[in-house]
Structure formats: structure tokens, C-alpha cells
Amino acid sequence: MRRTVLLAPALVLAVACAGPPEPSAPQPGTPGPSRPDEVQDGMSFTGWWHDAFRGRKPVESMTNLADTGAGWVAIVTTWYQGTIASTDIHPRTTRRPTRGSCA
Fold first, then answer.
1. In this predicted model, what pLDDT tens digit does every residue of 30-67 receive, in sequence order?
2. b/e map of 58-79 (b: 16 or more CB within 10 Å)?
3. What is the pLDDT of residue 101?
4. What's residue 6's pLDDT?
5. Domain range for 76
6. If DSSP states are collapsed to H, E and C, what string results for 53-82?
7. N or C, which end of the chain is more exposed by having fewer CB within 10 Å?
């Protein structure tokens, strides 16, 4: 009886320290994890100055992006607010790309 009393706490401790069981491998013929139907294969392109999208460098960047196989690009032009609590959001013409430079 004394041997059983000493063995029981040791067994509980061993099971508790072992952690959760490892997940089992999927059985043959069972479906694996699902894959998304659509893969997002693009990038956001932004400029922080009024002429950021003009000239040779933005064209080179877009060419390099196309070479990666990207299927889309989001052109981001920024607007600003005075403080984190401001509700007035507006462009700053010296800090954001102009409409003409985005064409």
C-alpha cells in the first residue's frame, strides 16, 4: 500500500511535466490544411513629398515591382491631421504627391 501511495504522486508529476501531446500526422487520404483561393501578390507604393512619383526612380521602382510578378499596386497619397484627436484631415501640398505626378 505504501508503495502505491508514493508511486501515485510521482506518476501525476510525470504526466503534468510532459506537456500536451504532440499533434498526430494526418492519416493518408485525409485533406490537409486549406489554402486560400486568392493570393495577394502586390504592394503599396507611397511617396512622402510632392514630387515623389515624378522622374526616373519611381519608374524604376515600378519596373522592379513588376519583375517580382506582382499583380497589383496601391498608390498611396497621404493626407494629414494636426493632432491625434483632430477631425480635420487635409492634404499638405508640399508633402504629398500631386495628382499630376500620380498619372
1. 776 776 677 778 888 888 777 888 889 988 998 999 99
2. beeebeeeeeeeeeeeeeeeee
3. 64
4. 47
5. 40-82+89-103
6. CCCHHHHHHHHHHHHCCCCEEEEECCCEEC
7. N
User: If we measure between CA atoms, which residue out of 46, 51, 96 comes closest to residue 73?
Assistant: 46
C-alpha cell at 50: 510632392
> Is residue 99 a part of any domain in this protein?
yes
Grid coordinates representing 41?
A: 501578390
Tell me which of 18 and 74 has the higher pLDDT.
74
3-state helix, strand, coil in the chain (%, to 5): 30, 15, 55
Total domain count, the chain = 1
How many whole angstroms separate alpha carbon 77 and alpha carbon 49?
Answer: 9
Specify if 103 maps to a domain: yes
Please give the distance of CA 54 from its chain centroid, rounded to a whole number.
28
